[in-house]
Amino acid sequence: MIEHWEQLDTLDLPRGRSLAAPWLLACEGFKAATHLKITVDGRWRMTRDPVVMIDPDGLAFALAAEELVLADLPAGALLGKFGGSSAAWGLKPPAKPEPAVGALGAAGLGAGAADKPDASSDVAPSPGRAFAIGGFAIVPVPDKVIGPLYVAPNLKRRPLQIVKLKVTVWGGVST
After folding, report:
1. Which residues of 14-50 are buried (b: 16+ CB within 10 A; e: fewer)?
2. Residues contacting 172, CB < 8 A, separation 6+
3. Cα maximum dimension of the chain
4. Are 147 and 30 in contact (CB under 8 A)?
5. Per residue of the chain (175 residues), what is the pLDDT tens digit?
6. DSSP string for residues in 22-48
7. 24 phi and psi, to 5 degrees?
8. Is the dihedral of CA 169, 12, 60, 148 positive or negative?
9. Torsion angle of alpha carbons 115, 5, 40, 19, nearest 10°?
10. Peptide bond into 14 cis (omega under 30)
11. Is 152 helix (H, G, I), strand (E, B) or coil?
12. Comparing C-alpha atoms, which of 97, 92, 88 is closest to residue 150?
């Protein structure tokens, strides 16, 4: 149980910013936090289809798997990644199989999604590997990771046009 959350950082991008890099830095370090609470308010669109607005939980329609960072999550849904580089997609396979972690739950995630943990899971994502955030997530900080936390929409094609993106990160210690 976490009784107190301390705000660690806020990423607040201006309207109209173009996103060309794979990842955006959301939080440099986590202090002594064992868990992060991440809230997201935003909308973005693909430059090839500027009419379609995407929110943090992604789109209901499917895109080809090769167009997505994580093929089993909705197109455009907000993802996170602990550690690594803003230039690396975070697709490296885990050392051992692990369930997906994130806030998107089982709705619309494809075969086997109902067996994956939701935002209340205590399974930490592997460092350097992408995971789901959506509009809200509580995720454990992986052991021996001091930061940073990166975020990105679940779309490989860049650039994207940011209409609004505000990501707030809180840290808490499990008791």
Report:
1. eeebebeebbbebbeebeebbbbbbbbebebbbeeee
2. 2, 3, 4, 5, 6, 33, 34, 35, 36, 37
3. 47
4. yes
5. 899 999 999 999 988 899 999 999 999 999 999 999 999 999 999 887 777 899 999 998 778 899 999 999 999 999 999 998 888 776 554 444 344 444 433 333 333 333 333 444 578 898 889 999 999 999 999 998 888 999 999 999 999 999 999 999 999 999 8
6. S-EEEES--TT-SEEEEEEEEEEEETT
7. -115, 140
8. negative
9. -110
10. no
11. strand
12. 88
Query: Is the Cβ–Cβ distance between 145 and 5 less than 8 Å?
Result: no
Q: Which pair of tokens denotes residue 172?
A: 């808490």
Single out the residue of 78, 83, 89 nearest to residue 141, CA to CA: 83
The residue whose two tokens read 């809200």 is 136
